[in-house]
Design goal:
Pfam family, one: ATP_bind_1
Function: Small GTPase required for proper nuclear import of RNA polymerase II and III (RNAPII and RNAPIII). May act at an RNAP assembly step prior to nuclear import.
Structural class: mainly alpha
InterPro entries: Gpn, Gpn3, P-loop_NTPase
Number of helices: 12
Mean pLDDT: 84
Keywords: GTP-binding, Hydrolase, Nucleotide-binding
Helix content: 40-55%
Distance between the termini: 28 Å
Number of strands: 6
CATH architecture: 3-Layer(aba) Sandwich
CATH superfamily: P-loop containing nucleotide triphosphate hydrolases
Protein name: GPN-loop GTPase 3
Bound molecules: guanosine-5'-triphosphate, magnesium ion
Strand order of the largest sheet: 2-1-3
Low-confidence stretches: 254-271
Radius of gyration: 21 Å
Number of domains: 1
Length: about 270
Amino acid sequence: MGPAGSGKSTYCSALQSHASTVRRRIHVANLDPAAERFGYDCAFDISELVTVPDVMEELSYGPNGGLLYCMEYLLENLAWLHERMDEFGEEDYVLLDCPGQIELYTHVPIMRRVADALQGWGFAVVGVFVVDATFVCDVPKFVSGSLLSLAAMVQMELPHINVLSKSDLVDAAELDKILDIQSASQISLETSSNSKLNRLTRSIMSLIDDFSQVTFLPMNVNDEESLEFVLAHADHCVQWGEDADVDTTAMDNVGEDPNDEGGGGTYGDGE
Ligand SMILES: Nc1nc2c(ncn2[C@@H]2O[C@H](COP(=O)(O)OP(=O)(O)OP(=O)(O)O)[C@@H](O)[C@H]2O)c(=O)[nH]1
Ligand SMILES: [Mg+2]
């Protein structure tokens, strides 16, 4: 989830290719009816059901109304989604690349109902909210990014993580500074001479604090360690891998067959 252009699809493709480097498989499916090209291997695509250009042409809607219509159409046809999701196995890990219209997560209950349906079908779901790091690199912007994320958190009622995309485009020291002030008590050190604005900012940050931890995980798509860090947080939220059977064959067979690479847990090497 996340605002338009924040890097949701890039997150999906980066995690899919990162997973393949650690011998793990991540499926990605597209739920954005406006998307036409994907940088990932797409397991299924909402365009099988409905697309924004078709709705715009047939119903004379604009792009935003068209997208809302498509998502409402998806809600009316959840059986399609259920059928497509049912094709995955019990251990499969799936990313759903969602549209970039922020209202879908914060104002209208459309994505909430999609998430509820997924949970009802037995899927463990984590909401990954992607925010562009270049939009949160000063205090007022950080507060507004936090509020956006908080609104999605409250509306979606899912285990939730916030990912700061495009971290490679901002100064690392600046980003660290922003990530370090995720506490209302430190805000006063960071704000300007406008005392009224300072008080407002502090109050909003206290509110965010009270809702407990709107924290952001910086993600650099070019850095495997950073991708692993984000993936580990998402895994933790869905408790992925916790029920995995640990294959101890390799340990049992130590010294018996030097060519046997043995097995690993579901995580693959080094985990
Ligand atoms: N440098 C850099 N560019 C990024 C990163 N993530 C996304 N971009 C660029 O930002 C633009 C938008 O990225 P997308 O992944 O399409 O964003 P999106 O959230 O899926 O966009 P919509 O689906 O249209 O809402 C593209 O040009 C990406 O190449 C990143 O981590 N670093
Ligand atoms: Mg996208």
